[in-house]
C-alpha cells in the first residue's frame, strides 16, 4: 500500500488532470497540481501531522483550501470533490494525458467529438484509418506521431545497458558544451550513478540567461534524434536512436536548462536517486531549510546552489560520489567522515581474464600483451577457453600444453615490460567439477573458473556447483559467477552468501566481470563480498581490440558497491600481485 502522502498526491494529481480536460478553471488546475507536488515531496507523513489546519498550513506551499481538503481526506479517507470530478468524465480519459503529444485540449476534443474514452479507444480509432484527421488541429502528421507514441508506449519499459547509453551521453554532453552561452553541461540520473541499466538519459545545462532557445534548438537537431517530444525554455525531450543507424535501441533523452546559480542544486536533484533526494531534503528540513532543484533556501534566501559541493557543505556533508547516492546508509557514513575512498579507473593495473586466437579471441598473445601495456598495465593473464567450450574453440589438453609454451615464450620476450601469466578460463561443469584435471591446472599461473552451460540450474545445485569449483585448490578466480547477460539471460541464482563464504575460506577472488552485458558480480553482491573480506577481480574478459574499454563499467559497478582499490587484486603492484596469485594456488 502506498504511503498516505503518495495516495493523497495521486488524488490531487487526478483532480488536476480532470480539471485540465474540463478546461473551465485553470486556477484550480494549478492549485491541485501544486498540492500534488508539495504533498508528494513532503518528507513528513501527513497522517502523522493529522487533520490539523494550523499545522498543515504551516507547510510551505499549502494554503487554506488545500489544507481543508487534506483534513477531509485524513478524516474521511476521501475528498468529495474528487469523487464528483470523477463522475464528470469517463474513467479511462485521464490516462490519455500520459500519451506523449496529447494535451488536455486534444483529449477533450477526442472525447467530445470522436467519442474516445481511453487509450484503447484511441488505438482502435487510429487503426481504422484517418477519420480523426478531420478534427480541428489534428492533421495527418499529428496522427502519425500519435501512432508512433502509442507504439512506443508499449515498448517504453525497455531499459538499455549502460554500455549502450554512456558513450552516447558523453558525446551529447560534448555537443552541448559547444553551444554558445552554455557554461556547464553534464549527464545526470541513473547514468551518472553508474547503474547497470538506464531508463532514460537525463541531461543538464547551466547557461546564461536568454540562450535557452539556442540550446534547445541545437539539442533537438543533434544527429541520433529521431523525434522531438517537447521543446521549451527549461525542458526539452527527444527520442534518440542509440545505434545511430536507425535500428535502435530508442531511448528518451530529457534536457533541462537552468541558470548557473542553480546548477549544483539541479545536478544534485536530477542525479538522484529519488530515495537519496528524499533523505537529503529531510536533512535540509531538519535545519529549518528547504532543498529543491533550484537551491538550498533559508526562507526566500538562497544559501547554496551553484555547485554540489557547496550544497553538501552547508548540510554538513562532504561531496558524495554519485554512485553511492542510493540511500543505503551512505549519508550516515558521510556524516561520520567514513565514506570509502572509491576505486578509480586509473587504479586498475592488470587484466586477469582475456582471450586470444587460440580460442575465440581476435588477437595473438603478443597483441593482447601489447594492448595491456598500452593501457598502462603491468600484468596480463592469458585465459583461453577450456575443452568443453567447443563453440568457443576451447583448447584440448594437448593444445593447452602447446599454448602454455607459446605464452611463456611471449612472457620471456616482454619480461622487462609486462608480466604475462599463463592461465585458462576453465569451464565449471554442471556438477562443479572442472574441465581439466588438476595435474594440468597445476601447470598454470592463473586458473579462472567460470560457469557457461547449464545456467538454468536450480539455485541449490548452482550453489553447490560454484562452491565445489572454489574448493578446487588450483582455482584463483571465480569468474562471472551467475553467467547472466543483462536483459537477455537471467543466469544462475546461487546463494551468494554461501558462495562468498566459500571464497573467503579458500582465499579465492570473485570476479566482477566488467563487460556491460555481464556486470557479474552485480553491485549488491560485490558489496557482500568485500564485507566478507573477499578480494574482487575486475576483469574485462577481453576478446580483442577495444574490449579493455569495458573496464569503466566494472569500475562504476564496483563504486556503487563501495569498493576501494584495496579490495581489488587488479590494483595491486606488480610484485604483490604475482605473490598473491602464487599464494592462492595449492591451498
Ligand atoms: P532511470 O531513468 O529509471 O534509469 O532512473 P533515474 O534515477 O535516472 O530516474 P529519472 O530519470 O526518473 O529521474 C532522474 C532523477 O530526477 C532521479 O534520479 C531523481 C530526480 N527525480 C525525478 N523525479 C523525482 C521525484 O518525484 N522526487 C524526487 N525527490 N526526485 C525526483
Ligand atoms: Ca533517467
Ligand atoms: Ca528522466
Describe this structure in words.
By secondary structure, this protein is an alpha/beta fold. It folds into three domains: about 150 residues, Orthogonal Bundle (DNA polymerase, domain 1), CATH 1.10.150; about 180 residues, Beta Polymerase, domain 2 (2-Layer Sandwich), CATH 3.30.460.10; about 240 residues, Alpha-Beta Barrel (TIM Barrel). The protein is about 45% helix and about 15% strand. The strands form four sheets. Strands 11-12-13-14-15-16-17 form a seven-stranded parallel β-sheet, sandwiched between helices. A five-stranded mixed β-sheet has the order 2-4-7-6-5, with helices on both faces. A three-stranded antiparallel β-sheet has the order 8-9-10. The mean pLDDT is about 95. Bound molecules: 2'-deoxyguanosine-5'-triphosphate and calcium ion (2 copies).
